[in-house]
Design brief:
- The longest helix is centred in the middle third of the chain and has 14 residues.
- This protein has one domain.
- Helix content is 38%, strand content 16%.
- The protein is an alpha+beta fold and 63 residues long.
- Helix 1 packs across helix 2.
- The chain is built from two helices and three strands.
- This is DUF1059 domain-containing protein.
- InterPro entries: DUF1059.
- Pfam families: DUF1059.
């Protein structure tokens, strides 16, 4: 199974966050949702989780 990645640097805001999360899709989704709420002051909701899920990318295999 391909792991998923989300990188806050691709979505800059006033916090200049540099967090990158990598793991199984549901792990990353849960962690990214928690991060969005606690660090970026978003409200946890199904809409937030769907937005985050759409932002996940496949981890690139290292050579």
């Amino acid at each position: 199974m391909t792991r998923k990645v989300i990188d806050c640097r691709k979505y800059p805001d006033e916090t200049n966050c540099s967090l990158t999360l990598i793991g199984e899709e549901e792990e990353v989704l849960d962690a990214a949702s928690h991060h969005a709420v606690t660090v970026h002051q978003h409200q946890d909701s199904p809409a937030l989780r769907e937005q985050i899920r759409a932002m996940l990318e496949d981890e690139k295999a290292s050579a």
